[in-house]
Design goal:
Radius of gyration of chain A: 19 Å
Number of domains of chain A: 1
Helix content of chain A: 25-40%
Bound molecules: adenosine-5'-triphosphate, magnesium ion
Shape of chain A: globular
CATH superfamily of chain A: P-loop containing nucleotide triphosphate hydrolases
Protein name (chain A): ABC transporter
CATH topology of chain A: Rossmann fold
Largest interface: A-B, 30 and 25 residues
Number of helices of chain B: 14
Keywords (chain A): ATP-binding, Nucleotide-binding
Shape of chain B: globular
Structural class of chain B: mainly alpha
Helix content of chain B: over 70%
Largest sheet of chain A: 6 strands, mixed
InterPro entries (chain A): AAA+_ATPase, ABC_carbohydrate_import_ATPase, ABC_transporter-like_ATP-bd, ABC_transporter-like_CS, P-loop_NTPase
Oligomer: heterodimer
Domain ABC transporter (chain A): 4-241
Largest sheet of chain B: 2 strands, antiparallel
Strand content of chain A: 25-35%
Pfam families (chain A): ABC_tran
Order of helices and strands of chain B: HHHHHHEHHHHHEHHH
Strand order of the largest sheet of chain B: 1-2
Chain lengths: 250, 335
């Protein structure tokens, strides 16, 4: 049984067609790597699955049940959680408020800052992320630290379907390993379905069970990691580019 | 002129207290407030008398209440320049309900507040749904309400309806310290709301990073609309309070744009950024206090009221520059 299935999803922005006809599926305990050029529509697809964009066509099934996602909140209530490419941190808020943004712990009407602070420290320590003070404003963090916060808040959200949009983008080698280890841990738990977007194929192949390529608004390739290689994936992407250039008469 | 930023070389504790202090947004305006009080008290012994303090309190309170709402709206990244007109209209709404429709006093007051909230709702919906910039939305609303006020009241002041006279009027503004008490209550309550509740956190998020807030699942429009409604309701409350205090309902309460602009000035002087994402309720109260003290002190020491606006203009500019400067210090001087 698939935890998440996407059928015939299309999404247009005015005249621009970002997704034409996307079909995709991920099972529990499975990690799907989603590859594609810049502007291929990967982030758009993620934002459709997490309830941020409404698809113009197609449907989404969670545990084989068709769902119409009304909002990010609604998707979240179904266990779908996202690390966005643009990270979505609020500069003016502290690290720990960012980690619990829109799922704050409270005592009555008041925020339970002490608990959130403690949990934030614990989670970051568990992840091996080095942030000396969770009360500083997010504006003061480095790109990699921001990334770590964004990942931490989704990973510790009890999500059952986790969407990661380029979680390794701004990461140094050590930090990237932390994230990849986290993904591996989640996968080992066996109850989380994970979609991860990456531009570094070597890293993607390391954690993914399957790889799919999104080209011109469609999934053009979908195969178990064991049956492909960095060289083949690179060839496919470049071939697509060359083909399109030739077709354009360039 | 340059501001000395040398941290005092004294014991570590003093230094920590100092950094802690300048890191607070309210710091600059608090210093200015204290300096003004000291200066005017030195200039005239009349300044810190019971009667004069009451004057300052009465000048501070209603506009500070409006400023609290303005802070929330500015933090969420919007502005409302129609609120002063809501303040002027609210007492009339109460008067119409009581004297024309026979509504009892308390429901009439609640009705006035409710209608004000409705104005905020309309402002909010036009701004968020129809994507009209809030400055323009509320500019239109300002004239709209002005027209309604002038046509329905024929621009005549009226007496406070007899059914609200007595305890109700005393409690809601006519009592010596009534307006100040309400003001402090509002300030403390909304300070807590902004700093310690989900609503406050989401208001900051919406103004600080709208896309980020949306992605986190926050209903951005709902937060903004809510804050529009908050400003209008507080504006109506301030207007009612003022009418009870001066014992008459006057179309010139708030002097058209005066309440609005003074409240925005108070918020800005208190350290609230117009760009959204940061602001303080306590700062707005202090900002309003500074403006009231300036005006009052000038009066007392016999300076003509004319240069007051010059000073207010300078105060806005200087505090804005100081805030920029201090916030850079805060960023740099982190842990
Ligand atoms: N909100 C939007 N409004 C209009 N166009 C959009 C919007 N979001 C994305 N697009 C367009 O849709 C296309 C796909 O964008 P998307 O962000 O999904 O690409 P991507 O595959 O994530 O690229 P990258 O690898 O650079 O992150 C692009 O042409 C982009 O300009
Ligand atoms: Mg993207």
């Amino acid at each position: 049984m698939d935890a998440l299935r996407v059928e015939g999803v299309a999404k247009r922005f005015g005249a621009l067609t970002a997704l034409t006809d996307v079909n995709l599926h991920v099972g529990r305990g499975e990690v799907l790597g989603l590859l594609g050029d810049n502007g291929a529509g990967k982030s758009t697809l993620i934002k459709v699955i997490c309830g941020f964009h409404r698809p113009d066509a197609g449907r989404i099934l969670v545990d084989e049940v068709p769902v119409v996602l009304r909002s990010v909140d609604h998707a979240r209530s179904l266990g779908i959680d996202t690390v966005y490419q643009d990270l979505a941190l609020v500069n003016e808020l502290s690290v720990y408020h960012n980690m619990f943004l829109n799922r704050e712990h409270r005592i009555g009407p008041l925020l339970n800052n002490r608990l959130m602070r403690r949990l934030a420290e614990e989670h970051l320590r568990e992840m091996g992320v080095d942030i000396p003070d969770v009360t500083v404003e997010a504006a003061k963090l480095s790109g990699g630290q921001r990334q770590a916060i964004a990942v931490a808040r989704s990973v510790y959200s009890a999500a059952r379907i986790l969407l990661l949009d380029e979680p390794l983008a701004a990461m140094g080698a050590k930090e990237a390993t932390i994230i990849l280890d986290l993904v591996a841990d989640l996968k080992a738990r066996g109850d989380v379905a994970i979609v991860i977007i990456a531009h570094n194929y070597a890293q993607a192949l390391q954690v993914c069970d399957r790889v799919a390529i999104l080209q011109q608004g469609r999934i053009t390739f979908d195969r178990p990691t064991a049956e492909t290689s960095v060289a083949e994936l690179t060839d496919l992407m470049v071939a697509d580019y060359r083909g399109r250039r030739r077709a354009a008469g360039g | 002129m340059s501001v000395a930023v040398d941290k005092p070389g004294g014991p570590a504790l003093a230094r920590r207290a100092w950094t802690g202090f300048i890191r607070r947004r309210e710091a600059s305006v608090l210093v200015v407030a204290i300096a003004l009080v000291v200066y005017f008290q030195a200039s005239t012994p009349l300044f810190l008398t019971d009667g004069n303090l009451r004057n300052i309190a009465q000048a501070t309170a209603p506009t500070a209440i409006v400023a609290v709402g303005i802070v929330f709206l500015l933090v969420s990244g919007e502005i409302d320049i129609s609120v002063g007109m809501v303040a002027a209209l609210a007492p009339y709404l109460m008067h119409y309900a009581i004297d024309f429709y026979g509504v009892p006093a308390v429901p009439a007051i609640l009705l006035a507040l409710l209608l004000a909230a409705l104005v905020g709702l309309v402002n909010g919906l036009i701004t968020t749904r129809l994507k009209v910039p809030s400055f323009v939305t509320t500019l239109g609303m300002f004239y709209l309400l002005y027209g309604i006020l002038l046509t329905t009241s024929k621009a005549y002041p009226v007496a406070i309806p007899s059914s609200v006279k007595g305890d109700l009027q005393t409690w809601l503004g006519a009592g010596d310290w009534a307006s100040l008490s309400w003001c402090l209550l509002v300030v403390v309550f909304f300070h807590l709301v902004l700093t310690r509740t989900r609503w406050g956190l989401h208001t900051i998020s919406v103004g600080g990073n709208m896309l980020g807030a949306t992605e986190a699942g926050i209903r951005v429009n709902r937060v903004k609309v809510g804050n529009f409604m908050l400003v209008s309701t507080l504006g109506a409350f301030a207007g009612l309070m003022e009418a009870f205090r001066i014992n008459s309902i006057d179309p010139n309460i708030g002097g058209g744009t005066r309440i609005t602009f003074t409240a925005i000035a108070a918020a800005v002087i208190g350290g609230t950024a117009l760009a959204g994402g940061s602001g303080t309720v306590i700062g707005a109260l202090l900002g309003m206090f500074v403006l009231a003290v300036l005006q009052n002190g000038f009066n007392l020491v016999g300076v003509s009221a004319n240069p007051f606006f010059l000073i207010q203009g300078l105060a806005i500019l200087v505090s804005m520059i100081a805030n920029q400067y201090l916030s850079r210090l805060r960023r740099a001087g982190g842990s």
